[in-house]
Inverse folding.
C-alpha cells in the first residue's frame, strides 16, 4: 500500500537537475497528495466565499467546508470540534497560549482568566530540546511577568533527563510546555510521565505536537494535555494553517490575543465582548480554503491509518540509522529507542551546508542548519547539523539513495 | 420563486413575524412570582432578543419579549410565546427539545405538527444552515430564562 | 476588456439553484482567476518546500516564489520588498502594530521601541466608521496602557466629520488609525488631510487599506502613512494571507508579537535576539503557497490596471445607486461622492437577513449583517444592513439582476 | 557529479576552506593603530564570523578572523584575507563592490580575475541563491570593520 500511495504525490516525480528526487525533508514540511491540491481548485472554483456572516448559498457552502475541517481534526486528535481553533501555524498557536497568559497576567480577561496569571513567584518549565517556537514565547512570557524560566536537560542519548524532574517542575510551576517529539532527534517524549508531574503541582500542560500528529496516533484527550499545537503543512495539509487545541473551559477563559471581526459579540466604540472558542481565537477572515484542503489531508491520513504510518516510518528509521552507522565519520545526534523517522547528524570535517549541497546534487533533499533548535545543537557542541526526515511516501530506495550519497560526501570534500 | 424559499417563508412564519405574539414591554423587577430573564445575541448578524418567563399558577408560562431581528427569529419568538400560553412546563421542554432536533435535521426530519403546532412551519428552515440560529435564538433565551424561573421557585 | 476577463473566473459560471450567479459580495472576499488557482497547483506539484532554511533545490525554488511575492506587492503599493511583512490577514497586521505598541509600553524592544510606548496621558484616535479589525485592537491597547481612545464621528452623508479634527487629534495623540475606504459606506476618506494633521502632532498613522488596495491605485509612500494593512483574499488572492506594510525604520524598532522560529538571530535557553523586518514579524512556517498565488493575483491586477478597475467599478456604483433610488422603501447608508462600488442599505420593513435570503434565491449574492462595523450601524439607527459590493469581474447585468430582485423584496414579504 | 557542483566547489575554494588564511586569534583590545571589529551571523544556519581589520602603515589592511561555517564562507574569508595583504584600502573597496555585484548576478556576470584574484572562483556560487549569504558573510564583516577602522583613524 505504501508503494502505491507514492503515486498520489505528484512532486515526487519531479527531477532535481538530472537526478530523481528523494525528499527526506518532511520534518520541515510535507508534500501534498493530489486530492489535497484538488480541494483548493474545487474550493476556489465552486464555493469560495466569506464564512459565517453570509446568508447566500456560496457562503453557506464555504461555512460547511470550514466547519467540517474542525470535525475532521477532532476525529483525528480527540475532543469535540469546538476545541479546534484555527491559527496560521503551530507557532501562532503556541504564542496564543503564552500571550494569552501574558494578557491574563496584566489584568485582561476578568476573574476567570486569573488562573492564567503569572508573577515573579511562578515558574515556567520547558525542555532543552524545544523548537524555538516552543521556547521563545515562554522566554517572552517570563520577561513580561517576572516568572522564572526553567528547563529539563537532554541526555547524551537524546532523551529528556528526568532525574531532577520533581525539583524542576515544582509547586511554583504554572506552565509546563514541551514537545511530544523532537524535530531534531526524533525522540518521542514520555508525555504521560510529564503530565502526571504537572498534575501533581497544578501546572498547565502545553504540548507541541508538530512532529507527533503527522507521524503517529495521537489523542490529546487520552494524553490529558491542556493545550496542544500543530501545523497542517507538516501533515499533508497546506501552508498557512495551524491548530490550537485546548480544553474548552480553558480556551473560553484564556484572553484572546488577536482581536477584530468575527470573534466578538457586541462592539461599541469603547468596549467589546468576545465569543467563546473557537471563534474567540479566530479574528478576521480565516484560511478557509486551507481548512477545506486540510480536511482532505486529515481524511487521507486516517484512511491510510496513523498506526501503519508510524510502523512504516519506524522501519525507514531503522534503515537510515543502520546505514549511517556504516559510514565513517558520521555522528548521529541522540540515540533514543522510541523515535520517529528523523535522523540528524554531524559529518566530521564537513559543514552541514556542504553536506546538504552535495546530497542535493544527487537529488536527495535534506535539511541543514540548526532546525530552529539552537540550544539543543549547542548541547551537542555543534551549531548546525544535517537532518533526514521521512514520511509515509518515502521508501527504502529513498533511504538507500541518501546513504549512497552520504558515503561520498567526505571523499568529495577531501576529508578522510 | 424556488420551492425552498416557499418552504422557508411559510405564510405562518410571515404572519407571526408581523403579529408577534408576546412582543411586549418586559416587567423586569416589577414581575411577581417565579420569573427569569435572558438576553441573547446572534453575533453573526447582531440580532438580539430579551425574553422574560413567568411561571403562572395554572402551570403555564407567560412569555414576554422584545427583540430586533429577521422574520425567522421574530416569528419563532412569536410562535414560542403562543405555544407557552397553552402548554405546561414539561410540555414546553418537550417542544423545545423536539424543535431543537428539527432545526438540526437539515431537512431530514418530519415535524410532529400535533406537538409542535405552528412551530412545525419552521421545518424548511433546517435546510438553511445560516438561518438555524435565527430560529433558535428565542428558544435559547427561553430555556435560559425558564431555568432561572424554576431555580427562583426552589429557593 | 472587462467583459472578457470575466471568463478568467470559473466560479462565476456556477449556478445557484436554478439561477445564474451574480456575485456582489467582493467586499467580503473576492473570487479568484484561474491563474491564481493554477499557481497553487503548480506550487504544490513542483516546488513545495520550507523556505529560507534549505540548501536543497526545492527549498530554493520555494524561497524564490516567496520572496518574489514581496516584490510584486511593493511594486503595487510602493516602497521596497523589505517593507512587506506577511501576516495571515489584515486583522493580524493591525494587531501586530497595536500589540507591538502594547509590548513597547511594557518595556519590550529596548530604547528604540520607546517611541511606541503609550501611557495614561496619551490618546489613540480612530473613526466611527472603522471595521472591528481597526477598532477592537486599539480598544485593547487603550485598556492595557491607560491611553484614551477617541474617534472622528461620521456625518449623515457617510463622510468623516472633520469639524473637530484638530481637537480630537491633538498633542496627546500617539496613534491615528483609520480606514482608507469604508467597507460599509464605500466612502473614500481624505487620507492626505488626516495624515497632515497626524504629522502636526507627531502621531503615527496606521492605514486600514483593505478596501482601497484591491479597488484603486494606492501608494503608501505617496500617502506618507507609517503602517498599512490589507488582505490578499479581497484582492483576487488566496485566503490565509495578509500584508503589514511599514516604514522600515519603524518596523525594525517595533517589538514583534508572535515569536519563534525564522525570526531570530541567536537563541539561548534564556534569551533571544530578533531579526529585522520583514522576518521579524514572520515567526514560524509562512503561507508560502499563498504568497506565490498572491504574486500571480497582484500581477493580474497590475496588468488590468487599477485605474481602469477603479473607473469600471465607479460606473457600476452609479448603476447601483441610480437603480436603488428608483425602488421605494430603500434607504442607502451614506451618500459620499468619492466612493467605490459598495452600497449598503436598509429595506424598510424587511430585515437584512430576509433581504439577503430573497436575493440569494434569485442568484444574487450580497452580504447582510453589521459587516463588522456595529458602531457605524448604530450611528445610522440600524443593527444590520444589506450590502452589494462590486469588483472588476462584475458587469451591468449583475447590477440589473440585483436591482430587479431587490424591487421584489418588499412585495414578497408583504410590505408596502 | 554535476558541472554546477564543480563550478560551486572549485578546487581553489576547497583549498582555501582548509588552509584558511587570516584565521587566527583576534588581538581585540591589544591591537594597536587604527582597527575595527565586526561580528556577523547568518541566522538561517547559525554560521558566524568575528573579523578584525587593522590599517597598516604600508597602506594595506591586516585581516584576522575566527569563525565557524561552511566551506564557502570559510574559503571566502580566507580569500578576502589574502587579497587584503596585497591591496590598498581603495583597491579592497573596489574588490568588495565587484564581488558583491558578482554574487548577486545569478551566474550572468563574468568575473574579472585580474581584479578579483582567487575570489573569481566564487562565480559559480552566484547560481546557488541559498549560498550567496555564505560567500558574503566575511565581506559584510570586513566592510563593517574597515569602516570602523577608518573612523578611528579620523578621530
Ligand atoms: C475595512 C476593512 N478592514 C479590515 C478588514 C479585515 O480583513 P480580514 O478579515 O481579511 O482580516 C476588512 C474585511 O473584512 C475590511 O473590509
Ligand atoms: C517541534 C516543532 N515545533 C514547532 C514547529 C513550528 O511549526 P510552524 O513553523 O509550522 O509554526 C516545528 C516546525 O517547524 C516543529 O518541528
Amino acid at each position: 500500500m505504501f508503494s502505491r500511495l507514492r503515486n498520489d504525490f505528484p512532486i515526487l516525480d519531479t527531477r532535481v537537475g538530472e537526478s530523481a528526487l528523494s525528499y527526506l525533508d518532511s520534518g520541515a514540511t510535507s508534500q501534498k497528495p493530489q486530492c489535497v491540491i484538488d480541494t483548493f481548485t474545487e474550493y476556489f472554483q465552486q464555493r469560495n466565499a466569506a464564512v459565517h456572516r453570509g446568508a447566500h448559498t456560496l457562503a453557506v457552502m464555504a461555512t460547511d467546508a470550514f466547519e467540517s475541517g474542525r470535525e475532521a481534526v477532532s476525529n483525528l486528535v480527540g475532543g469535540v470540534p469546538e476545541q479546534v481553533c484555527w491559527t496560521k501555524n503551530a507557532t501562532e498557536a503556541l504564542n496564543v497560549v503564552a500571550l494569552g497568559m501574558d494578557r491574563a497576567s496584566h489584568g485582561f480577561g476578568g476573574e476567570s482568566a486569573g488562573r492564567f496569571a503569572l508573577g515573579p513567584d511562578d515558574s515556567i518549565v520547558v525542555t532543552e530540546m524545544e523548537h524555538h517556537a516552543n521556547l521563545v514565547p515562554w522566554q517572552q512570557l517570563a520577561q513580561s511577568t517576572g516568572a522564572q524560566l526553567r528547563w529539563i536537560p537532554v541526555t547524551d542519548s537524546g532523551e529528556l533527563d528526568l532525574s531532577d524532574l520533581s525539583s524542576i517542575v515544582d509547586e511554583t510551576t504554572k506552565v509546563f510546555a514541551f514537545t511530544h517529539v523532537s524535530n531534531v532527534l526524533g525522540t518521542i517524549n514520555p508525555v504521560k510521565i510529564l503530565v502526571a508531574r504537572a498534575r501533581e503541582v497544578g501546572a498547565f500542560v502545553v504540548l507541541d505536537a508538530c512532529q507527533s500528529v503527522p507521524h503517529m496516533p495521537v489523542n490529546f484527550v487520552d494524553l490529558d494535555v491542556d493545550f496542544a499545537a500543530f501545523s497542517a503543512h507538516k501533515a499533508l495539509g497546506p501552508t498557512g494553517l495551524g491548530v490550537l487545541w485546548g480544553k474548552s473551559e480553558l480556551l473560553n477563559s484564556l484572553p484572546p490575543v488577536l482581536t477584530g471581526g468575527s470573534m466578538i459579540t457586541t462592539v461599541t466604540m469603547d468596549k467589546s465582548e468576545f465569543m467563546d472558542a473557537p471563534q474567540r481565537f479566530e479574528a478576521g477572515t480565516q484560511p478557509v480554503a486551507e481548512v477545506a484542503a486540510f480536511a482532505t489531508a486529515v481524511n487521507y491520513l486516517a484512511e491510510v491509518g496513523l498506526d501503519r504510518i508510524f510502523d512504516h516510518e519506524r522501519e525507514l528509521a531503522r534503515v537510515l540509522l543502520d546505514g549511517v552507522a556504516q559510514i565513517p565519520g558520521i555522528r548521529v545526534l541522540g540515540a533514543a529507542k522510541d523515535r520517529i523517522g528523523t535522523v540528524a547528524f554531524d559529518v566530521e570535517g564537513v559543514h552541514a551546508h556542504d553536506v546538504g549541497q552535495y546530497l542535493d546534487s544527487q537529488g536527495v533533499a535534506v535539511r541543514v542548519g540548526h532546525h530552529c533548535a539552537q540550544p539543543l545543537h549547542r548541547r551537542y557542541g555543534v551549531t548546525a547539523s544535517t537532518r533526514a526526515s521521512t514520511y509515509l511516501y518515502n521508501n527504502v530506495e529513498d533511504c538507500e539513495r541518501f546513504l549512497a550519497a552520504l558515503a561520498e560526501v567526505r571523499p568529495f570534500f577531501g576529508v578522510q | 420563486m424556488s420551492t425552498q424559499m416557499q418552504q422557508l417563508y411559510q405564510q405562518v412564519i410571515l404572519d407571526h413575524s408581523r403579529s408577534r405574539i408576546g412582543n411586549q414591554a418586559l416587567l423586569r423587577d416589577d414581575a411577581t412570582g417565579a420569573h427569569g430573564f435572558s438576553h441573547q445575541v446572534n453575533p453573526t448578524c447582531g440580532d438580539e432578543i430579551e425574553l422574560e418567563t413567568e411561571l403562572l399558577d395554572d402551570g403555564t408560562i407567560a412569555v414576554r419579549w422584545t427583540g430586533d431581528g429577521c422574520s425567522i427569529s421574530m416569528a419563532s419568538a412569536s410562535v414560542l410565546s403562543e405555544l407557552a400560553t397553552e402548554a405546561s412546563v414539561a410540555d414546553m421542554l418537550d417542544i423545545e427539545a423536539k424543535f431543537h432536533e428539527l432545526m438540526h435535521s437539515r431537512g431530514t426530519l418530519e415535524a410532529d405538527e400535533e406537538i409542535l403546532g405552528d412551530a412545525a412551519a419552521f421545518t424548511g428552515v433546517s435546510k438553511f444552515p445560516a438561518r438555524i440560529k435565527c430560529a433558535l435564538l428565542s428558544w435559547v433565551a427561553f430555556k435560559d430564562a425558564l431555568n432561572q424561573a424554576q431555580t427562583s421557585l426552589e429557593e
Notes: DSSP finds 14 helices and 17 strands in chain C. Residues 57-77 of chain C form the longest helix (21 residues).
